[in-house]
Amino acid sequence: MMRVWILPLLLVLGGAAVATGEFLAGNPGTAAVSLAAFWALAGVNSPLIFPSSTGAREAQRGSAVDGRPVVYWRPGCKYCIRLRIRLGRSARELHWVDIWRDPEGAAAVRAANDGNETVPTVVVAGRPHTNPDPAWVREQLSRSA
After folding, report:
1. Which of 24, 31, 41, 119 has the fewest CB atoms within 10 Å, i.e. the most exposed one?
2. How far is residue 90 CA from its own chain's centroid?
3. Rounded CA separation 33/26 (Å)
4. What is the pLDDT of residue 24?
5. Regarding beta strands 95-98 and 127-130, do their DSSP bridges make them parallel or antiparallel, or are they unpaired?
6. What are 53-93's pLDDT values in tens digits?
7. Quick one: DSSP state of residue 118?
8. Sign of the C-alpha dihedral, residues 93, 99, 100, 101?
9. What is the pTM of this model?
10. Could you tell me whether strands 70-73 and 121-124 are parallel, antiparallel, or unpaired per DSSP bridges?
């Protein structure tokens, strides 16, 4: 679990170091902007921004029962972050699988993407869709309700 906090922690510490250097160099405005940018990057890469991940097997079972899509993602992926942010609160209704933490999830993504671990891969009714439009994913979610 600690591993998921390493990148956000490094971004916060790195931002503090850059901002301190800028401030000491007499650039308080640049320091503030740098610090805000690093904190924003840390925020979108933190485990707080994504709903808790489940294993691929559990997500597939859950999807079979409730019809909600399964999203295969990985930390740091800008397309995954875009999907998560654009889905807003409805993202919590999806089944999320972190392919870096779940080998079965990574294998499912490779099988759907010609051997590549391209994410986000969203599986709806057993059919994978690579990097789909967030509005389309939201529509699929409303259909499963």
Report:
1. 24
2. 14
3. 14
4. 96
5. unpaired
6. 889 999 999 999 999 999 999 988 899 989 988 988 888 88
7. -
8. positive
9. 0.71
10. antiparallel
Cβ-based burial of 26 (10 A; exposed 0-12, middle 13-18, buried ≥19) = exposed
Please report the sign of the dihedral spanned by the C-alpha atoms of residue 121, residue 125, residue 126, residue 128. negative
φ, ψ for residue 122 (rounded to 5)?
A: -110, 125
108's CB contacts (< 8 A; 6+ apart) are 56, 72, 97, 121, 123, 128
Beta carbons of 72 and 105 less than 8 angstroms apart = yes
Residues recorded for the chain: 145
* The one-letter amino acid at 145: A
Task: Kindly give, in sequence order, each residue whose CB lies less than 8 Å from that of residue 79, ignoring residues fewer than 6 positions away.
Answer: 119, 120, 131
Contact 73, 98 (CB under 8 A): yes
Q: What pLDDT, in 10s, does the model give residues 102-143?
A: 999 999 999 999 999 999 999 999 999 999 999 999 998 877
